Amino acid sequence: MKIVDSAVLGDYDPVLHPMGYVSEYKLIIKQTERLEEKISDYHKQLRGMNNVVAEREFVNLATSIETYGFDPYVVKDGKQSQDLVVGATCRGILVFSKNQLLKNIPW
């Protein structure tokens, strides 16, 4: 899988973007086929959008996500002997257990 930035795909074109094209790109950690279909549908809806506007919208959306810039580390919880994921973001420290946010410690 390739890691893709917001400008790689360009404007939606059914010839250049056949069914399943999103699976070639690593967009998120747990990428499913269903999510890839949603991404493809959203790409189609943005057809005709100026590249500069598309990149600005992408950055605005990405930075609004709670885990934007998350740098995860797997650690053991000493009390319950379970794996936790701890990481820093631009807003603070996040602690997850089984994909559930347990703690948000803002800077």
Automatic annotation (TrEMBL):
<feature type="domain" description="FERM">
    <location>
        <begin position="1"/>
        <end position="107"/>
    </location>
</feature>
<dbReference type="InterPro" id="IPR011993">
    <property type="entry name" value="PH-like_dom_sf"/>
</dbReference>
<dbReference type="InterPro" id="IPR035963">
    <property type="entry name" value="FERM_2"/>
</dbReference>
<dbReference type="GO" id="GO:0005856">
    <property type="term" value="C:cytoskeleton"/>
</dbReference>
<dbReference type="Pfam" id="PF00373">
    <property type="entry name" value="FERM_M"/>
</dbReference>
<dbReference type="GO" id="GO:0031032">
    <property type="term" value="P:actomyosin structure organization"/>
</dbReference>
<dbReference type="InterPro" id="IPR014352">
    <property type="entry name" value="FERM/acyl-CoA-bd_prot_sf"/>
</dbReference>
<dbReference type="InterPro" id="IPR000299">
    <property type="entry name" value="FERM_domain"/>
</dbReference>
<dbReference type="InterPro" id="IPR019748">
    <property type="entry name" value="FERM_central"/>
</dbReference>
<protein>
    <submittedName>
        <fullName>FERM domain-containing protein</fullName>
    </submittedName>
</protein>
